[in-house]
Queue: 4 jobs
Job 1
Amino acid sequence: MQAPSRLAPLVEQFDFASRRLTARMSGPAVDSGDGVDAEVSPMTGVEFLWEPVPGCWSVRRLVDGAGPRATFLAGTGDWERDATSCPHPWPPPFTTIAWRLSHLSEMLLLRADHTAGSDALTRDDYVVSGDVTGAVAEFGAAAEAWRTALLRVDDVALDTVGYCTYPHGSDPEEPFLDIVWWVNQELLHHGAEVALLRDLYRACATAGNDGTTPTRPSIAPSDS
């Protein structure tokens, strides 16, 4: 099936953003935005779980329990993700690359299931990876599942309110085209956060070591 004309640019944007994020995490190069590839080293496991400030949310071994201000661990498996029921903590906890990537992958996989799958998956079914290689692979699989779901819809589906029944968002009350736009927004902004954290990790690496044990950035006091 050929994608509806108004869906095509959103699929193209999604493809670009997912490829760029994967390259930013895995290397060996990423599109710098000016037509020149920038060299990128693969993300390490230490970097993946790096907590640059106190009180971070991350993915954690189930046996270790939830992190600061989290009330439970979401997902299934040996590793799960810091979470809490509404209302969420304020200010929001700072989250690690591992947390952000797990959040993205879960969202993509579950929305794909609630668009063109079983309509049954919940966060309790999502297997969280504490391994960087596994997490990057999970993101790739989840992105492909969402893309496949998109390519099955037609113009009628794009205008259908509640076409996606994803239970953790406004999907049941929104036209599907708005959900497609929202997913792209999630990928773009969380992908940018992951890229920034990679840059910060590199910049904060302790001088003279191998770059795997960076110092925490200093946090200036607020003027407010």
Job 2
Amino acid sequence: MKLLNDIVDLLSDKAGSLTDAMLKTKVLMHKIGHKELAEWVSDELNGYGPDKIVPEYRVISIRLFGNVSNIAVRQTHTPLPTSHLSDKQRLVVTEKKLRESIQVLERYAASDNSLIAQVKPEWFPAIKKGGIEKSFQIEQAWTQFEPGQVVGVLIEVRSRLLDFVLNLQDELGDIPEDEMKDAAKGVNAEAMFNAAVFGDNTTVIVGHNNATTITNTVTKGDFNSLADTLKKAGVDEADVAELQAAVNDDNPATVTETKQFGPKVKEWMGKMTQKAIGGAWTIGLAAGGKLLADAVGGYYGIGS
């Protein structure tokens, strides 16, 4: 598939344009019938607005510097203390959320100089009080981070996206692009995407078009987080306990190797499907099947 191959080529070449790879990925999401997954791609391409949660990999540490002086001495580009500030104040001058677009971050990464942001004079009294000897005045203050830190963020984005595309390529095989959408129906692209892009914490959302919406995070290897998600979806405690027994009976190494659920877990999921069909599990068959696949897959750290 040329589209997948093009994306892999761009992502695996350190000189390849990450912006171009993202644009092609957006096309890919639509071709496989998962345009909802393109939201992350759009955020990376356009930047994260003030109402958006910035992914952890885009949060970097910054340093506070300034020019200070008194009647006898002037110190330039000197580190300014932050330990005396409140937790909220300290975060403002020691942590930066990179909300900018990938294209802007690529420009930052190519810079030969440190990247700075001026600190407003209104902050000077708080920085000085308890942190700087009384005879000194702050003339100028700024926060600073380095291009290498931005390079690290871009590598994270490139690596996460490449993991997803390679896994999808393995699942779909070598098929014509016009058959991609039908082939993708047999692949849990959403779970695969979440695992590659967001890591072991898998967000499970059920009921997009139903009255009930369930959102929870299933952490790889943490059965309690899996149990909480299932209980919120209306799964009885007895059924959750039965799943835990099934998980304990199945060989986790085999599950990891084959990326397939073990026989006991498959049997349990079959029982739950029958409950959904019979109305004993009120969340419904379509939403229930998705929940089981995403939640249990998140527990094992695999795409189901």
Job 3
Amino acid sequence: MMNKSIQLNERVNLTKSQINVLRKQGQVPAIVYGKDIGSISVIIGEKEISSIIKHNPRAILNASIPNQGNKPVLIQNIQRDSLSNKIVHVDFHQLNMNVSMDSKVTINFTGDPIGVKEGGTLQVEMYEVEVRCMPDNLLSAYEVDISGLKIGDQLHVSDLSFHEGIEVLSDASSMLIKITQANAEEAVVSA
């Protein structure tokens, strides 16, 4: 479901210094690409794209694209300045809402595991899984309650149960998190 409209403005053959001036004026250079439209250079307001990323970085957006009209797009890649963390470039992927797509879904772990309360350590191995689904079925995040996990417990990709229409592409045996004994490493070293 497209839950936000955005305006993308045309960007034509600008020099690096002209692009830097645009950035100082609160504009972010971007590109929109897709099977139907090819590749189009655009700009978007920094406040607008920052707000979208903050609220739902995997939202399907209704983008007004110069000379193309409105098209559904997904944020494919975000480049940030390594020092300031400001957005310097965005890649949008134009979607066909009638064709399945591959994407990543963020896993949000909720609850305080029993094992951590008992002195164990929570180790997160993966924060997202790759899925294939129709664009309308794409989740921005998937919540997993880990409050019941004890020391020695592990959570694998195979333990996740997405709703019908979402195929998990990540290896089912991949570990998401585990609860380890806090001093397990010390015991191995001293043995």
Job 4
Amino acid sequence: MENEEDSRATTYTTLSAGQDFRHELEIRRSRFITVLRRSPDEETARSLVSELRREFHDARHHCSAFVIGPDRMVQRSSDDGEPSGTAGIPMLEALIKREAAPGVTDLSDVSAVVVRYFGGILLGAGGLVRAYSESVSAALDGAPLVQRRRLRLCAVDVPHAEAGRLENELRNAGYVMAETGYEAAHAVLRIALPDEAAGIADAHSRVASLTAGTAVLTPQGTEWVDVPH
């Protein structure tokens, strides 16, 4: 039976870290200003709403949606005064249905806020749904995305004289090598592996084969790493 750790997501798509991404649309004289932020937790997502309320204090609406977690378990949205279901839910759907690749909808750790300045022309319920959905989709079209991967770090102790050869052999086999440590008695090679049982088992076999069974991989935990999208 598949264990709980194996069933968790090992990759997902998110925004590049470090800065917000902004996009503006004008629809029938209303301004829709969309701000996207990478948000690993609800506090970060909600802080974006608070910041934009202060920055655009004279705007009528600050609608929001966010999805958080590798498995996208946290999903929230707010219409902020727009008719129920015409803003937050369309924004959330634009996030969760976004295709990072054909058939792949895995966008997460992203919050979106759409600030609306009313232009004097009523859009109607259908018009609002389209406007808020289009605002988030258009912003995502230009936003920098990355793939985030959960990698399993494993270490192997080898004699100093063998470290260079073994590291080269593993690199040539396609493995991602993390930083090598040098201790008094031996070198410590570190390999970053996809956090999947089959790949880890293959790495154990490869190290055993390359060292005639004298070296063994030791797990050192996992970490999430950004990979260019």
